[in-house]
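Field reference: sequence -> structure
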Amino acid sequence: MRAWATGSAGVLQRTERPDPIPAADEVLVRVLACGVCRTDLHVIDRELPVHRPGVVPGHQVIGEVIGIGAGVSTMQAGDRVGVAWLRRTCGACRWCRDGRENLCPDSAYTGWDVDGGFADLVTVPEAFAYRVPSLMDPAVLAPLLCAGIIGYRALRRARVPAGGRLGLYGFGSSAHLTAQIARAAGAEIHVMSRGRHNRALAAQMGVASVSDAAGEPPVKLDAAIVFAPAGELVPLALRATERGGTVVLAGIHMTDVPSLDYTRDLFLERDLRTVTANTRADGDAFLRLAERLHLTPQTTRYPFERLGDAVDDLRAGRAMGSLVACG
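Structure field:
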């Protein structure tokens, strides 16, 4: 099969791989579309530690089941499924038993521990595949599998009060979906982003204010989510947040956070929180919400042969919204 795999740091290379064979509890999926996520970029650029040399990235997959393992009981050939970042958990640790499987120490991830969706075919455990509508455009659905789910979890952890003011630092794939959910709940959105294309998208969506990444919103925020992997934004987000507010760091990787001044940045019961992956319950709840809200990502589409260009455009901040490889 065709695939794009990691090479040396910063290199994504086109290659040919044997077709994967599903384990007993897995299904084999023909990839119809795969979103290009900043986490993929962190894997390619080795900003995350190497878990599997030469891994095939990609964890926002929409595809069709074409093969099933011997132990699969609820899926069959022809089913439309989504494949996301969280691939396996142990199911037995205290975090798994407590409904917090995203914190499982033995968790495994698509496109990091196991080959992902930058390929013609991918496997996924039956228990970690999402059923998705068969009539919807796969390229529209793909970004929901990570950008959407993680944005949803970050928004929940931000605890925005009814009618509250929410700041979004970075306005890429995840943030522009999160903004749609937050606005539907009545929040006032303020965007700070370095990318001019994404600032233009925010303005087009009619948010309350737009500025560059280091800009100061015109009002104090009740909560802020930092999507950009830039540690220097954390103190800025805290200072922009009202007393009793919450700042959530939504990325899997971030550059070093500068020293914080306790009185200026954290006092008055400001909370600083992080997001670590997601649970399947998050995914199920978000996909139901996305269907109800008719959530639609702004997509930039690339043919499979230009997937390397998509990664370069994401790295350079040249694209707008969600980047998706098709075909």
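Note: The radius of gyration is 19 Å.
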